[in-house]
Each structure stands twice: as C-alpha cells, then as structure tokens.
Amino acid sequence: MLGIIGGSGLTKLPGLSITHRQVIRTPYGEPSGPLTFGDLGGHPVVFLARHGYGHNIPPHLVNYRANIWALHAQKVSHVVSVATVGGIHPELGPGCFCVPDQIIDYTHGRECTFAEYNGKQVSHQDFTWPYCEDMRQRCLQALRGAGEPCLGAGVYAAVQGPRLETRAEIERLARDGADMVGMTGMPEAYLAREIGLCYAAIAVCVNWAAGRGDSAEGISPEVIEANLAHATERLRTVLKNLACMSYGAEAPVAPGGVCDI
Ligand code: HPA
C-alpha cells in the first residue's frame, strides 16, 4: 500500500475519501497524528501530515521515527514524502517540482536511527543512493502524467531549521553541490531505508533560496504562502496518479479508471 507524508500546506489530502483514522502507538512515542486511511482515485492509501493536522510541529521536533514506524506497521510498502524546498539550482524556481536523487544531511540532534544498544552486532546500512529508484520513477511518471514541470534528479540539502538560511549559507550549500534546501528530508529518508520502505520525495519549490532570484533581499512569507497554495492544488492530480499505480499485493490498475496517466 502507498503511504503519503504531507509536508507544509498538505495537512489534508485533496480528493481523499476517508474510510477511517487510526491512532498508532509506537516504541518511539507518538507519530505526528493519527494515520488517515482512505481511497484516492479508487486505490487505498494512508496519509500522515508530518507537521500535525494543525500544522504545529516544527521540523526539528517531528518524531520521524514514530511516523516511519507507524506507516511500516500498517503494511505500507511504498512512501512518497511531499516536502517544500527553497530553490538553489537555476532551473528549480518557485512552482517547479523535483524528485531528488541525493541528500546532504546538515541536521543535528534528531533521533536518526532505529538501531539501539541491544547487544547485537553493529551493522551499517548502505545509503549511497538514499532514495528508492522504483519509487522515484513512479513519482516522475506521476508528475509527467499531470503535465507538471519537474527536475528529474537533484541534491537535497537537509537543514535544521526552523529558521531560513543566510545568503552565505546558501552559497556554501551551492558550493557543496546542493540543488535545493529543505528542513524535513532527514532523518526521514534514512529511517525509511532502515526499516525497508521504498521511499522517495517530491520536492515542491516554494521560494528561491536566500540571496537568489527574488529572494535577493529576503524571503517573503507571503510569496511562500502563495506558491505553496498554488502547488498544493496541482499536487492533487500528481498524488492521484501515484495512487493509481499498483503496490505489491494490490490489484493492478483497471484500464479506463479514474487515473490521468
Ligand atoms: N529553506 C529551507 N527550507 C525551506 C525553504 C528554504 O528556503 N523553503 C521551503 N522550505
């Protein structure tokens, strides 16, 4: 089954007909909220708002372990994470989507692994390619099917937040090779890898990163809000397209169904 983690602006899933909500208890504490089970384009999905349904959990306080554990415990096999970013790459301006293929992690102090001292041999998980390529390709197909502009790959710089960056920090991230900057990509992606979920992200650019483009003198919250509202509306079709693909044991998509791809 497909799990959808909604970021800023995506506290509800447009077009989802909800069957039930479920509070999941995890060994790592409370997820950001109850999981919402429902039907999108005729296919079952589970939705979770990363920042809470009231959008009140800042990026550094999200319980990433509980969120990922809860989805896994509900037999989710594939996860798409929707995450807003500031654009660094010259072609990744506001309104553009990207399906990143790499991550640089600048976060700190977050619970970043399920591995705990339990007397077992320490093992180190491969993370050379941090996203599941199968899921990345599905995301790209869903975006293209919806006619959305998107970059097919890019380096996601995960920063601590909740503040935005300085101009010099963005220059440094650009020198490091980052194409976009966001606050929630890690440790979420790594935890998904550790637990065995096929995970990819759709990055939604809502502003030029600090010091670039129309953010040369600062980043206006109104600009972010407006771009976010517009992108969220367009994500409706993209996510429906994703839901319409088959995941594991589910029945394949019926031809002539409600999907746009
Ligand atoms: N920086 C970090 N995170 C973000 C930004 C940004 O400019 N825009 C949206 N999320």
Bin the helical content.
10-25%
Assess the beta-strand content as a share of residues.
15-25%
CATH topology call: Rossmann fold
Tally of individual domains: 1
How would you explain this protein's 3D organization?
There is one protein chain. The protein is an alpha/beta fold and 261 residues long. The protein has one domain (2-245): Nucleoside phosphorylase domain (Rossmann fold, 3-Layer(aba) Sandwich). Helices cover 25% and strands 23% of the residues. The chain contains 5 helices and 11 strands; from the N terminus they run ββββαβββαββαβαβα. The protein has helices spanning 64-73, 133-145, 167-176, 188-195, 221-243; strands at residues 2-6, 17-22, 35-40, 43-49, 78-87, 97-98, 102-105, 150-151, 155-158, 180-182, 198-208. Strands 1, 2, 3, 4, 5, 6, 7, 8, 9, 10 and 11 form an 11-stranded mixed β-sheet that branches. α1 packs parallel to α4 and α2 crosses α5. It is globular. The two termini are 19 Å apart. The protein binds hypoxanthine. Hypoxanthine (HPA) is lined by residues 84-86, 159, 164-165, 181-183, 206-207, 209.
What is the secondary structure topology, with strand pairs?
Layout: E1 2-6, E2 17-22, E3 35-40, E4 43-49, H1 64-73, E5 78-87, E6 97-98, E7 102-105, H2 133-145, E8 150-151, E9 155-158, H3 167-176, E10 180-182, H4 188-195, E11 198-208, H5 221-243
Parallel strand pairs: 1-4, 1-5, 5-11, 6-8, 7-9, 9-10
Antiparallel strand pairs: 2-3, 3-4, 5-10, 6-11
Helix pairs in contact: 1-4, 2-5
The structure holds hypoxanthine (HPA).
Hypoxanthine is lined by residues 84-86, 159, 164-165, 181-183, 206-207, 209.
